[in-house]
Design brief:
The complex is a heterodimer of chains A (494) and B (1079).
Chain A: E1 2-4, H1 8-16, E2 25-31, E3 34-40, H2 42-46, H3 55-61, E4 66-69, H4 74-86, E5 92-96, E6 100-104, H5 115-128, E7 134-136, H6 141-150, H7 161-165, H8 177-185, H9 192-195, H10 199-218, E8 235-244, H11 247-268, E9 270-281, E10 286-297, H12 300-308, E11 320-332, H13 350-363, E12 371-373, E13 383-385, E14 406-417, E15 427-430, E16 433-446, E17 458-465, E18 470-476, E19 487-492
Parallel strand pairs in A: 2-4
Antiparallel strand pairs in A: 1-6, 1-7, 2-3, 5-6, 8-11, 9-10, 9-11, 12-13, 14-15, 14-19, 15-16, 16-17, 17-18, 18-19
Chain B: H1 25-34, E1 39-45, H2 51-58, E2 64-71, E3 79-83, H3 86-101, H4 112-117, E4 122-126, H5 140-153, E5 157-162, H6 169-183, E6 187-190, H7 201-212, H8 234-240, H9 245-257, H10 280-295, H11 302-318, H12 321-336, E7 341-344, H13 351-356, H14 370-377, E8 385-389, H15 393-404, E9 409-417, H16 420-430, H17 435-444, H18 455-460, H19 468-480, E10 484-496, E11 507-509, E12 516-521, H20 522-528, E13 533-538, H21 539-555, H22 561-565, H23 570-577, H24 590-599, H25 604-613, H26 616-620, H27 624-631, H28 642-648, H29 658-669, H30 673-684, H31 689-705, H32 710-726, H33 730-749, H34 751-760, H35 769-778, E14 783-784, E15 796-801, E16 804-808, H36 819-828, H37 836-841, H38 846-854, H39 865-874, H40 889-892, H41 903-914, H42 927-932, H43 938-942, E17 949-960, E18 969-975, E19 978-984, H44 986-991, H45 993-998, E20 1001-1011, E21 1014-1024, H46 1026-1029, H47 1059-1070
Parallel strand pairs in B: 1-2, 4-5, 5-6, 8-13, 9-12, 14-16, 19-21
Antiparallel strand pairs in B: 2-3, 3-4, 7-8, 9-10, 10-13, 11-12, 15-16, 17-18, 17-20, 18-19, 20-21
Helix pairs in contact in B: 1-2, 7-16, 10-11, 10-12, 16-17, 16-19, 21-33, 21-34, 23-33, 25-33, 28-29, 29-30, 29-32, 30-32, 31-32, 33-34, 34-35, 38-39
The chains are: A alpha+beta (494), B alpha/beta (1079).
Amino acid sequence: MSICFPYLNTDWFSLRNPELAARPLISAIAVRGRKVVKAMNSVAAAEGIQVQMPTADAKAIVPGLEIFDDQPGRDLKLLKGIGEWCIRYTPIVALDPPDGLILDISGCTHLWGGEQAYLQEIVNRLALKGYQSNAGIADTIGAAWAVARFGKSSIVEEGKLFDSLLPLDPAALRLDHNILQRLQKLGLNKVRSFIGMPKSVLRRRFGEGLLCKLGQALGQIEEVLMPLQLQQPYMERLPCLEAIKTVKGIEIAIDLLLEKMCHRLREEGKGMRAATLTYYRIDGKVGKVGIGTNSPSNSKVHLFSLFELKISAIAPGLGIELFVLEVSKVEDSILPQEVLWAAKPGLDDQKVVELLDRLTIKVGASIVHRYVPDQHYWPERSIKQSSAIQENSGTEWNATQPRPTQLLSQPQPIEVSVPVPDYPPMLFRYRGITHNIRKADGPERIEREWWMDEGEHRDYYQVEDEDGQRYWIFRSGHYSLTKAQQWFIHGYFA
Amino acid sequence: MGLSMKYTELQVTTNFSFLRGASHPEEMVEQAVAFGYKKIAITDRNTLAGVVRAYAAAKDKDLEIIVGCRLDLLDGPGLLAYPTNQEAYSRLSGLLTLGNLRTEKGKCHLYKSDVYEHSTGIIFIVIPPDSLTETLQLEAGFQHQVKEYKQELGSFLYLAAIRSYQSDDHKRIFRLAQLSKELNVPLVATNDVHYHDPARRELQDVLTCVREKCTINNAGFKLHQNAERHLKTIQEMQRLFRQYPEAIENAAYIANCCQFSLSSLKYNYPEEITTEGRSPQEELTFHTWQGAKERFPEGISKEVAEAIAKELEFIEEMNYAPYFLTVFDIVSYARKNHILCQGRGSAANSTTCYCLGITSVDPTKFELLFERFISSARNEPPDIDVDFEHERREEVMQYIYNKYGRDRAAIVATVTQQHQKGAIRDVGKAMGLSVDTVNRLSASIWEFTNEWFKEERIIEQGLNPEDPLLRKVLQLTGQMIGFPRQLGQHTGGFVITQGKLSDLCPILNARMEDRTNIEWNKDDIDALGFLKIDVLALGMLTCIRKAFDLAKQHYNLDLTLAGVNKTEDPKVYEMICRADTVGVFQIESRAQQSMLPRLKPTCFYDLVIEVAIVRPGPIQGDMVHPYLRRRNGEEEVIYPSKALEAILKRTLGVPLFQEQAMKIAMVAANFSAAEADELRRSMATFKLKGMVTRFQKKLIDGMLANGYEEDFAQRIFKQLEGFGSYGFPESHAASFALLVYVSCWLKCHYPDVFAGALLNSMPMGFYQPAQIVIDAKNHDVVVREVDVNHSKWDNILEEKVGAYHAIRLGFRQIKGLKEEDIELLEKGRISSYKTITQIRDSGVSQSALERLADADAFRSLGMDRRQALWEVTALNDRPIALFEGQPSESALESQVSLPLMRDSEHVVQDYASTSLSLKAHPVSFVREKLKLLHILSTKDTQNTKDGVLVKVAGLVLVRQRPGTAGGVCFITIEDETGFSNLVVFESLFEKYRKEILHSRLLMVEGKLQREGQVVHVIVQRCFDLTKLLRDLTATPNDDLPLLTLSRADERSPFPVENKRTQVRTAVDKEVFPPARNFK
């Protein structure tokens, strides 16, 4: 069986933007600097839009045209997705780019009550999912392809192959554009007008390609399918012979599952960031517990220790008959180099990381943070929380522009005594305490990030008081002889 | 000079350092003047492109521009370089040339060693790194490099100190001061200026994003942390460097040392142009009089002699003789090599140029244009543009390169400016808008007027105009428009010098191979008074030369441009008045054609007016109708004032030419000549929008003060606006009118020759070959189809049939055919070919044979295209080697009968292969069906009365929406009997948009309007009848190759109702080549 999706790309888009489904819609790609139509939906097609038309032209023809950018490879991805879905109808599904699928349906149709019903079922189900399709069934791939796209009826009965091809366009034979053009120029506009010609005549004029395609459609030349491989997700199942009720039993089950999973992860050079253990109880209830890690891990011991903390949350009830471990987030794990004698400091130490994981699981994910520099001059935005413990933000802490060890999340107003123009203050009062400034450096002028907010720039000074304590203070705005300026403290140096 | 005036800013980056500087040189100058600077330097990166702009802007102000440049080196810290005298300047220019020519366009590769070689007389300032190391030291590498610089450059080396309000300013400058003391390299204060005003920081950030290909949100530390790199006041700079007063003094000292100014650049004319030891003036006098004898064989009249004497005197006074001689030399070369050429421009239309053969416009035939040259030459250099045949212009350019050498001749640059679409794209992208939003925005963009984006349009695009981000994008876009984006190559402006060109200006590689150009554009060249010659390409000249050749061959006529133009032929004007002008120069467009019967030209000057009148300037200024009324005596010829009578007399009181509009500004609104020129420039480039408004006020106020009516003043301004981008000066119009006349003369007397030459020069002009052929047939010329036994590559003339020779279409008409194949075919055609195999054996490739079969070129072998193709495709495996010449296997095949082709199918295939068919017009096949629908043929409409409701259908030929027509769309359709002109008003256009843009066969219903001989259909309803054409082929096919769209058709996108841009697109396509801006 051959299925083709005439509006694959736009159907996909309409599914995500249902309000556009009834509007003329096209996807566009850039070809040599200008945008051309890649695909369109049936509404746009009815308005006279054609593939390869420059989008500018298309817009001129249909003023309300909706356009979205095509991503190369999306079609294939979609086909693959639909293909995988189709595996429920037959185990052998093959991609037929750019717009179709081929299903080997030998021995499948009777389950749905015959070919017609089978075909109808698939087409209807696809339509329900939002994808328009045409399908054809025939003894050969070539003929199925032909009737799916060009035929009046969609099923070629056995032995009717030859007859079914006769009234079709030559294009139904999957021929080269060049050959098609030549056929057209010679007035051979239907398969019937040349199918009967001697092979040597055809070969001389159109090459082997035409004969090959003709042979494939008629079943004289074999054509093989490359079935779609289904990628295995990271999942392990453990059915239990006896229902498990005890903690020990659960521990063993988790251990067994992790054993297998970690082995597989190690083989593939991966580590898990998050996993879910699903347990199916005899009474039909299903429960879940989940864990997460700060860095990809495939260490059974460590992962087990994380699950161990969760075991108390598992309610076995009358007993558990099936455990399923699914890893929902997998990342490449860098194989730690086996280093003898050397203990690695800080975050590179596996022990520290594992401790952090345990802490996180125990007290909650919102407690432990790590900060990394972010590429912003504006102090409040110059740091950010890292998402993973080993994250490398790509930015170094700037050594020549020192920033305070403790940065106040809100700058606090201070009173100052300051000479103009842009000298540092002589003293400042903060929380009732007066600090006489002995040494100072600055100003460092930091402007607002104008695309985010508006306001005055800041002139920062690093100052040291008589006690040798250093502060980061700033004046908001340019110095002024006439207007009093507000000063703030924004941080403490050690 | 007081102490407070000491500081001079020495480091100024303008927007000619592309994507770095965020202010125009003019803005820098203005700000510097406002701050009381007496001198500033301009130091763009590895270029001098911005210096001239600043120099020109500062010319009449109390500010001197120090020429300078920032050298970015590949193996050392950057250096600012300031030549102290002219020799040093030449060395700097040579240095940049060296770096430019080493690499591809847009880059400049320089090394330290290059700098040392060219360093004499140049003061250098070394630029320190932005920050200190972790240990608060200057980088060791930098210190080391400065030491080396010091050894090489000695006392000419300085060290820059920049207060950029980083946290380490004090430490950094302290270290620099230490280094300065240690190496004895004096410290100089600069502010590394990138914009004239701190508010431009936002734009500068955006430029950085464009340069670094990132968005503002992820640019991070690629941006600067504050807005301190603006031009600061002298007092502020002195305050910032109060601890280092010597740094301020050194800046002043350097400024004082740089005594070189661009005004001292002396342009020298090349010497090669004189012979026999004559001075240029003597040489020019000699050639002029000699030429005069040839031009006026019947004797030089007293009038002419006087004119020549007067002109030569003036040329001597202005010292322009070398200029005329240079042009003369190039033109002589072209004449010697039979390349047709024609000069235009104010200086070209002089008796001298006529005698020298530069132009063929006989100046005695109408009022002398030289007077106008004299008046314009007082304030700008002479200007002669020479058009050459477009197919052979390259020969002329290479001649110039060879004669003067690449180091002395180069093409002028054109500065590509950032236009609104590009600007919004760049800004939008940098601001992180999605591609989709950017597209919507750019679709909604109006034009750069004061209210250059309209809220309605933005809302229409589904965007919120109140959105602050959007507002910011639009605001920045407004600032960015007009920024120079890259240096391109001028279409043909040459600069030729006596000495090395690189002494005057850096030379760089052009994108095209074998071309070099200089960094300055024509305005810069003008400002410095350099000689420039425009070597341009014109398709019509190619056509005329080919026509002259054909006339020689078949009619034994020796034609020349001047010869044809000698007499005024009434028959030619009759033809023009009938608007029978398909294919001729300029007046062939639909707009021109509809004007012709109304204007009824009867003499050469009428043609000059005709050429100039159908243009945005006069149309926008609403000058066309008054002129027509006055000409037809329907309106009294009155002049707004006595003073204007002198200016407007020739055009019946209506300003039509660009010089007139400018003169009016001078006479009626008291503009100085320089101001009038500035006004024109400010309109041609819309970069300084403030200026346009300022001039508008000045012009209108000035005219009102002098007692003119406001209405008239407004119209003059509007017209100037239109002229700004596409003006037409009278002298250019005169030169074009000559070509108009010559092409009309050819068409009138020798339509066979004309059509043949035109087809051989394609693509050019307004019409497709199909229309040219139909037109030729209408003039009783027999046209024959392409045939392997009769045709050549070019279209040729065969024996006479009736009054004219028959045209045999050439192989060039067939799409995708290569000339080499045809050479083989012609070579092998000793006697007529009898079989296709013979042609194959002569070496013609298989694909070429297929193309020939597609074109139905085997008729003389007794085969139609289908049979021929059947045979050709079988030749793939013809016998080779030993068996060569034996009958192909296909000859032994059992005969296969192919479906017969209908005539209509043949016609469709003809169109597919050659874009025309001699067999029939596609519409003729559906005529029966059209008749059933009561649709008239276009011929019938010609005989229908005014005001009758008609239905007419045809293939769409042209669709145009000129911006000057208020949204009206003009369509021309064609059927087997002729053309029909349709007018669609704006509201209807919106309604029938799809039909109009999509139909091949368009049927309209509307009212017939008759105005004299001109017949229009005012459309009321449109129908797409393309479906009728489906049945022309055996398989119903919607995608028929029946495209006859003219090259002037505005293929969509039909732009939004943007008046100004439309003016451009429409005119751009109508004229070939694009109209020259007036100078």
